[in-house]
């Protein structure tokens, strides 16, 4: 399957471990489909939940999906700085004309000063039991969370100074 090219709009779909569709981001602009990561940008896009609810994002965002990483990051440009919402999930794949991954419930909210909060631990525990996550998946989830927290502490990858702003400038070239 041919990867999308920079400037092309794509959908992002997340699923749950049992294969159920979780959420669809309607239209994100591809900025890079490199060997180590895919980077997309969006602004005030429609998001559809599996229960039929729909909402729009509130600000421009740059999303980074690292090859083989068990997390992805959304850097949101707000007046007081860049805020991040990070999803713990399976590595991405390009399938049926959409960027797809399995959402494993745990999320990390990162503030402009790089302090963070781990969210939805109760949801993770509930789904882990209900969907009977295998030990191999739980190991990858823990490893992904540890890797993500390490990048935050070191301010590397998407957490580097000006990373989000630089990619946002590229996004603006396509819009």
Structural features, described:
- By secondary structure, the protein is of the alpha+beta class.
- The protein has a single domain, classed as FomD barrel-like fold (Beta Barrel), CATH 2.40.380.10.
- It has three helices and eleven strands; from the N terminus they run βββββββββββααα.
- Strands 1-2-3-6-7-8-10 form a seven-stranded mixed β-barrel.
- The longest helix has 20 residues.
- The two termini are 26 Å apart.
- The mean pLDDT is 96.
In short:
With about 180 residues, this protein is an alpha+beta fold.
What profile does the largest beta sheet have?
A: 7 strands, mixed, barrel
The structure class reads: alpha+beta
Averaged pLDDT, please?
A: 96
Strand content: 35-45%
User: Rg from C-alpha positions?
Assistant: 15 Å
- Helix content bin: 10-25%
**CATH architecture assignment:** Beta Barrel
CATH evolutionary superfamily: FomD-like
- When the domains are counted, the total is 1
Provide the low-confidence segments as ranges: none
Distinct helical segment count: 3
CATH C-level class is Mainly Beta
Helix-strand pattern, N to C? Answer: EEEEEEEEEEEHHH
Say how many strands there are: 11
Q: How widely separated are the two ends?
A: 26 Å
| Quaternary status | single chain
CATH topology: FomD barrel-like fold
**Sheet with most strands: strand arrangement:** 1-2-3-6-7-8-10
The outline comes out as globular
């Amino acid at each position: 399957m041919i990867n999308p090219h920079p400037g092309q709009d794509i959908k992002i779909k997340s699923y749950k471990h049992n294969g159920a569709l979780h959420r669809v981001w309607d239209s994100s602009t591809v900025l890079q489909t490199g060997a180590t990561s895919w980077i997309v940008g969006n602004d005030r896009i429609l998001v559809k939940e599996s229960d039929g609810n729909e909402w729009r994002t509130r600000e421009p965002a740059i999303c980074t999906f690292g090859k083989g990483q068990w997390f992805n990051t959304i850097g949101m440009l707000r007046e007081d700085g860049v805020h991040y919402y990070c999803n713990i999930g399976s590595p991405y794949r390009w399938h049926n004309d959409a960027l797809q991954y399995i959402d494993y419930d745990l999320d990390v909210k990162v503030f402009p000063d790089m302090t963070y909060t781990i969210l939805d631990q109760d949801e993770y525990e509930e789904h882990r039991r209900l969907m009977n996550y295998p030990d191999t998946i739980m190991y990858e989830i823990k490893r992904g969370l540890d890797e993500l927290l390490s990048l935050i502490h070191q301010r590397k990858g998407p957490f580097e100074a000006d990373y989000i702003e630089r990619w946002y400038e590229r996004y603006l070239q396509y819009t």
